[in-house]
Amino acid sequence: MKGWRKKTDVHQVTDAKPSLTADIHKREISYLIKMGIRTICLILAVVVPVPWPYRLLFIAAAVFLPYIAVIGANERGKPAPPPTFQSPEANQTEIPLHRREIGS
């Protein structure tokens, strides 16, 4: 009876999503880093005497970074990969072993 079953793919631990706590922590850290960069850009635009093109660049970063930070913070983790488990198709003409009766 060797070889009568089809080989199936097996789930792997690496297919699992990270926990909700880990996902939220990662998004919080990302948000804080982006808002820290925004604060630095705002300080550079106001305090440091730089030419106007650089000052406009710092102001633009200070204006648009909050939007980018919020979008990134609201984004949930990456979608789960499709399951790799494939169940073998049932053979409808054969009675399963656990359903056979004596004498059949």
TrEMBL record:
A UniProt-annotated Pfam family: DUF3099
The entry's keywords: Membrane, Transmembrane, Transmembrane helix
Transmembrane segments: 31-50, 56-73
UniProt organism field: Nonomuraea insulae
InterPro entries per the UniProt record, alphabetical: DUF3099
Source organism superkingdom: Bacteria
Disordered: annotated span: 78-104
Protein name: DUF3099 domain-containing protein
